[in-house]
Structures are given as structure tokens and as C-alpha cells.
Amino acid sequence: MTRISVTVDGVGYTDEVEPRTLLVHYLRETLGKTGTVVGCDTSNCGACTVHLDGHSVKSCNVLAVQADGHEVTTIEGLAQGGELHPMQQAFHECHALQCGYCTPGMIMQAIDVLNDNPDPTEEEIRLGLEGNLCRCTGYHNIVRAVQKAAGATKAGAQS
Amino acid sequence: MTAVDERTEAPAGEVGKARRRKEDQRLITGRTRWTDNIVLPGMLHAAMVRSPFAHANIAGIDTEPAKQAPGVIAVLTGADVKDSQGAVANAWPITSDQKTPAHLPIVVDHVACAGDIVAVVVARTAAAARDAAELVDVDYEELPAVLDGKEAVEDKVLAHPDLGTNKSALWRLDSAEGGTGGNVDEEIDKARADGIVIEREYRQQRLIPSFMEPRSTVVDPTGEQVVVWTSTQVPHILRFLIAATTGMPESKVRVIAPDVGGGFGGKLQTTSEEFATLAAARHVGKPVKYTETRSESLVSGHHGRDQYQKLTLAATKDGTVTALKVDLIANLGAYVGVVGGGIPVLGAWMFNAIYKFKAYRFTVQTVLTNTTWVDAYRGAGRPEATYAIERLMDELAAEVGVDPLKIREKNWIKHEEFPFASVAGMTYDSGNYEAATARAKELFDYDGLRREQQERRDRKDPVQLGIGVSTFTEMCGLAPSRVLGSLNYGAGGWEHASIRMLATGKVEVITGTSPHGQGHETAWSQIAADRLGVPFEDIEVLHGDTQIAPRGLDTYGSRSLVVGGEAVVRAADKVVEKAKVVAAHLLEASADDLEFSGGRFTVKGTDKGIGITEIATAQFTSHNLPEGFESGIDADATFDPDNFSFPHGTHLCAMEVDTETGATRMRKYVCVDDVGQIINPLIVEGQVHGGLVQGIAQALWEEAVFDENGTLVTGSFVDYTLPTAADTITFVTENTTSLSTTNTLGTKGVGEAGTIASTPAVVNSVVDALRPWGIHDIQMPCTPERVWRAIQSAGKNQSDATTGAAQPHFDEAAPNQDASPGGAPDAGSPEKGAEQ
């Protein structure tokens, strides 16, 4: 077992973990952060996406021990003081989720896309979300939501 | 055009309003209850030991090393629970002599496909269980495997040697025999002599539903009732089948479908994993959780499609269709699932589609193979049918030499001909193919794109443009119990709702449907709000728990709204009727003099009135009720429709095809769907978008592939290529409305429409681009390799030396679609790409 200290959603935790423990399993099983989910076993689907020191990572692709001394933000830490994050609000407004299983990862990745590029084209949004799979929405409304969150004026206006 | 914030129409009531979903708040903040999130005191974890072989006998299993592993509590084999584990049932034997192999959750001595469960390890942690599963030593005696449907028909290698054949059932629908049309053979002979006969064979490749939430089951056997939480579309059906196959009293079983992350038919099943987890939990007397990995999901969750379709279409010389003959081989995989052989049968009434054939015959041979079982996947039988007929109509148009929309218009049912009795024996309730098609053409700029296509052909552009059409219909809303009974289906098709009027003015709507992403909580609230005149926000929709919603038949086949929504309407109407009696009493008026509107009973011609929620409070106290009135205004309703509903639509796809590389790029996709009354346009759009991409994915990308040993080589998301945001485009979707006549609201189903319609539209567009090469078919998925090979074997583009071939033909800076949905000359003009 290895001792790690991680800040998750603003709270400090110190735990003993098996070295093989994936970050996503540490979040879900040790900390009860079940908002972050597992959708595959090959790092393709992105359902487990969280932020590690402000950048998106697939938490199935990071060992818990690699998060030692770092800061993790999950979907559960996004809303502040009862206020939804603008990306969460945009997903709701644009009907960018149906079953909601990919949504936590999709929202975390979408925020990262806008952090890198606050004014992306539709193409840039689509490429930025390529590592996150959704089976319900056909991505149409997810792209709309990211555009809305980015302050894009009108669907389809960009080229 | 399709952006939600541009909606301007404001319906008076809730129905028709683009309400944002009630479900979202929890889902976007991670406050979710997926089955895998559930943790119970003393809970143990299961891991499955699965066969790596497609076909084998089990000579022995040594579980001792696994039992000695750290943290392991128990290891169960099929033999250990032979008499108590229940069975994975088929609920729809399509013929009385159907061959249905026994399907044990944990097999005992015979493995019929890779992924079959041979043992279950129960341990203190999921990781310990998984580690120990590796230590279970199974002695397999490998047998030859049959994998392909056509090979299976020959019965040379048997999937289940004890059955003596691979043929499960032969099912037929014939218009002459059924008295719904003429003789198919005579019509085909006539056309051979003096008309047009088109004969084709199409392949419906095997697909994997690929819901995003892997299946998970938690069983708690520690209470008086065994509680099963499971990621399912069908909690009520599972409860029934647990009782029916294990012998447990139904009253001792409670099934809960908590948050369920998608299904698409893939969770319309009672699974080996559910029964194995139940057996394990009962064995150890502790709660047990099992959650599959994605790789397990892809190999063991049922697959979809997998048909060979042999088709003969007869027409007169002018292109008037006369007869259609359909011969299918449907590969069911290793077992007959809960609906199983019924899936191709659901297509039997849909090959004739919207066209006025005189004669029709449908025959399906279902076969067993040593592959993953095949059952419902979005559309379930109807996408296969729609694909075949919409591809054939394009072939007929090419043969006659007219536009594909013209040939359809010539043959389709006219608006004024509804209700229409089809040659297959169905009565289509309503529709307006003319209106949907006219609007779709306008949105698409059909004529403009046809002109561009001709220009590209004329200048031998290496990037050709294809235009694909699909004017589909489907039957949905499973369904009339009487009809299902006549088809030997093992259940009814009714749906149930209850409404509880709480003392504080809040309302609970209990539905027997079981949503997993469809937004029933929002839509049912809208329906009940209008009917009861209570605020949308005051309504709570409860579902997915056999103890809370004891009566129900769950969610599949685009049935929830048209059947379950109507049950809500009827329950609400009963509440109003009951409340009216109390209102008359409290208002000291005759019930005949009362009007109900906006949640209030008023006495005609006076200002006296009382709200329905006040009556809910009055019945709670029961201090002052009419003489002899049984306290309570809650109500139940069960609805069983007398017909299916028949949504339809016109889908148009423009595709650029690079004739030198075989790459395809979708330019534009327009669909105008008629799904009857729309309760929530936002949800309808979402269903269409998602459905489109699943159908497009069948056309272009997805296929489940087994190697010659029966190993699924597309067994992970690395190899089974789901579309991403970067592969897809923004769609143009609109609706026309022909109210259904089978329910009060006039609704039709929408859950499967996009998937059913889009596949042929896309393949038609690819084939249309390549018609000048003499190409009339490309097998799905139309990968660049297949497109390229088709062009090469057609051998007509070899002569054109390609200058600039090393450069990309698509303009990489351009958006991957036309910018304007309205049909105006567009910014994404193809010449940019073509002239490099």
C-alpha cells in the first residue's frame, strides 16, 4: 500500500492505496465520488474524465498514486455555492444529455476545450470532444451546448 | 433552425412546450444512482469466468485454486446451482415447433458461444474476484463452431448438437394466404414477361447496441424480499421471469431499475449475469454486486441485426410496384433471447412500407450459431425492412430512369387514402408523405444539390456528390395485446399508470414504463399538468421499481408515450371524475353544472369554484365528503391500444464521395418526421438526433466481426468503432404532424425513427454518387476500403490520371457540412474541395 494525499473538489484526503489502483476507482470506491463513472476498459469512452490540476484527464488512465500531491476536480465539484457551472447550465438548456452516463466526462472535457480555446469553431469543438463517446444525443446538442457556453451567438453561425 | 433557443411558438398548455428536462439536475451534477454506485453493508463482489471458446464441452472445472485466493468467499459452477439458478427465457416462440436451446445462466456442460459464463467467483472486492477468476481452471473440449447464418442453414456443423439442426423457426406471411393481397409468384411472373423485376441480396451486418453504462446488478437477499437493482429496460419482465424460472414466489422478488444509462434494446433482456448474480447472492446470503467490463459487455450483451436479405421486387414498365418477395436468414446467435426470433418478424409488416404493392410474401428462417446471441437493437426488425425496401426503390428508380423521389411518389399511399389497409395486413392510422417530402426537399435544396451532382459528373470531379433518399414508415407502440397473443408472444402490450393526489397539493404520477434517458419524467409531467391543471413543477413521476410501480410492461419498441402516456391521460381523467363528485358537494351544486379547467371546478354562470388540489386536501381530512363517497380521488388506468401507430418521415442525405480514396464525407442531412402530436419538441429532436447517428453508424462504420474461431475481434471500443463528435455533423430536423388515431393525444413513437430511416438514406447517397460507374450496391458498413474496392472493380475510373492526387480533396478548412439549413446557396460549396 502507498500513502497518497490528494485534494478532490476542494477537500484534502490522505489514504493508503494499492499501487495498481486507478484514479477513477480511488474516486468512486474510496471517496464515494460516484458522479465520475467508468464506461470502458480501453480509455476510449472518456466517461471518467476529470480535471487534474485544471486539465482534463481520463481518470481510468491515471493511477491514484500519480495524483499524489495534486488537485482533482470532478463533476461533483463544479457547481459553486448552489450555482451551476456555465457548462452544466448549457448542457441543461440545450438538451445535451439523455441517459446522462457520458455527461460528467463530456462536461469536464468540454470545459477543458474552452479553457484551451475560448472561441472555438464547430470543427474545433467536435475535434476537442473526439475522445468522449455519447450514444444518445448524436452529439448535435452537445456541440450546441459548448457553443452556448462559449458565448457563441447562434447555432451554425460559425464556419 | 433546430437550435432550441430559437423556438418561438408558445403553446397554451404544457403539451408542445420545449420544457427543459427535470431529469437533468442530478445527471449534470453527478448526483446519480447508477447500479454500480450502490453499496450495501456486507456487500460482496462477483466476477464471471467466461468461455474463450465459441463451442466446447466442459470436461471438468477445478475451482480449488480460486477458492484459496485471498478474499474469495465462494466459487459457483453451473452444477452447484443447477436446479436453483433459473433460466434465461425466450418469451416469443414464433412458431409452435421453434427449436429453442436451453439457456442456463451458468452453463453446466456445454458452451455455445464465447463469453458464456462457466463459473462465478464471489469475493470481498471486485479486484479480488477478478484476480481469482483467472485461477478457475476449466477443461474445455473444443468443438467445431458454426458462425455464419448461411452456413448454419446447411446444418453441416451444429451449434447445439443435441437439437439436431441449426434451424430454429421458419415463419411466413403471405398476402394471398392472409387475404390481404394477391399472389406474389403470379405477379413476379407477369413482371418477368412484361415489366421490371429487381432481385437483390442485402446484408444486414451485426451490430452491438453499445449503451454507455455497462450492465450492473446488485442483489440483496437479506430481507424478506430479495431486492434486485439492475441496469435494465425491463424491471417488470425481469421480476416475472425470475419468479417463473427459479420458482421463487413473485411476491418475494422486488426489481429496481435505478438510473439506467441507455439501452437501445440492448437492455431489453433478462441476462445470464442477472441470474448468476442472483444465484450467487442467494448462495452466500449476502448482497452481491456484479458490474461488467466493456469488453465483457461487447461479447456477452446481445447483438443486433445480422440478416441476409434476398429480395425480389416486381413492377410494371412505368415503375408501378406490384409485388415484393422477401426471404430472410436471421442469425440468432447461440440462444433465442427474450424476443429473439421475433425481431425479424417485427419487420414482416414493414418491407412493403409506404408503397401500394398488390402482392407480398415474407419468409424468415431463424438459425442458431456459435456467436453472441442476437435480439432487439434500436428499431428491431424495422430498420432491416426499411433498409431493404428503400434501397430497392432507388434501384427501381434507376431502372426506370427517374428521380428516386418520383418513383416513391408514384407508389406511395396518398394522404387522402388513410386509414390504409396494407398488403401485409396492417392498418396505417394516418400520414402525409407528400407534406413531409415537400418540406424536406425545401430544407435540403434538393433541386440545387441535384444540379451540383450533375455538374460534378459532367466535369469528372474526383469528388462526386450522392443524394440519398429514405421515405420510411414504421409501426411502433407495442402494442395491442390481442395482436401479440395471436402471434404467440408471451406477454401483453398494455401499460399502466396511477395518479396519487397528495394532501399538500403535490401529485405523484406512477408509470409502468421504465425510462433510461428518454425523459419520461418531464414529458409525463407535461401531460399530467395539462390534464389535471396543476403546475408542471408539482408533479413527481415515479417509475422503475416493481414495488412502487407494481404494474407495467416497461420501455421498448417506441411504446412508452403512445401506450404509457395514454395510460397517464386516462388515470388523470379518472381523478378529475372522482374529484368532480367532491367538488359538487363542497360547492353545493349539481355535478352536471360544473366545468373543469385550469385545475379548477367552477359552477357554470357563477364565480363559485374550487381547485382540484383543495379537493385532494378535503379527501385527506375526509371531514366533509358526499354521503356514501369512498374517500380518495387517486386513480389507476390501464391502456391497451387497438392498433400500432405508424410514424413516417422523409430523410435526405447528401454525401461527398472521393472516388480516388473511397472516403465519404456527409455534407448535409435533412429529415422531416411525422410523429403525430409532439409532447416536448426538445425531447423529440434529441431522440431523432441520436437515432440518426446510430443509423448512420450502421451505414458507415459499425460492424461486429468474429474471426474463424468465433472470437469477437471487435471486442472493445478500440475495434468496435462508435461514431465520435468529429465523425458527425449538425442535422436539420423538422416535423409535420398527422395525429395518430389510436390514442387521445394523437401521439406516435419517435424513439426508433431516426435509426430506422437513416441507414438507407446514407447508403443510397453513397451508391447514388457512384451510379455512373455502374455500381448498384456497397455492403455495409460502407468503409472507404469497400467504396474504393467497388470503384476499382467497376474499373471505369482507371483511365483518368489523377493530378494532385496526393492532396486532400476535401477542403480541410471548410466546415464538414453545408452551413445553411434553409436551402439557400451554401457556403460549403463543393467546388472549393473539388478544384484542388
Supply database-style keywords.
heterodimer; A: 159 residues; alpha+beta; Ubiquitin-like (UB roll); DNA polymerase, domain 1; 5-stranded mixed beta sheet; 5 strands; B: 836 residues; Aldehyde Oxidoreductase, domain 4; 7-stranded mixed beta sheet; 22 helices; 28 strands; 21% strand; globular; disordered N terminus
Written description of the protein model:
The complex is a heterodimer of chains A (159) and B (836). Chain A has helices spanning 23-30, 86-93, 103-116, 122-128, 140-149, and strands spanning 2-8, 11-17, 49-52, 55-58, 71-73. Chain A has 159 residues and is α+β, with helices and mostly antiparallel strands. Chain A folds into two domains: 2-77, Roll (Ubiquitin-like (UB roll)), CATH 3.10.20; 86-149, Orthogonal Bundle (DNA polymerase, domain 1), CATH 1.10.150.120. Chain A has a five-stranded mixed β-sheet, sandwiched between helices. In chain A, helix 2 packs across helix 5. Chain A starts with a strand and ends in a 10-residue tail after the last helix. By secondary structure, chain B is of the alpha+beta class. Among the domains of chain B are: 430-477 and 644-834, Aldehyde Oxidoreductase, domain 4, CATH 3.30.365; 494-639, Aldehyde Oxidoreductase, domain 4, CATH 3.30.365. Chain B contains 22 helices and 28 strands. In chain B, the strands form seven sheets. Chain B has a seven-stranded mixed β-sheet with strand order 3-5-1-12-9-10-11, with helices on both faces. In chain B, strands 7-15-14-13-8 form a five-stranded mixed β-sheet. In chain B, helix 11 crosses helix 12, helix 16 (520-532) packs parallel to helix 17 (560-587) and helix 17 packs across helix 18.
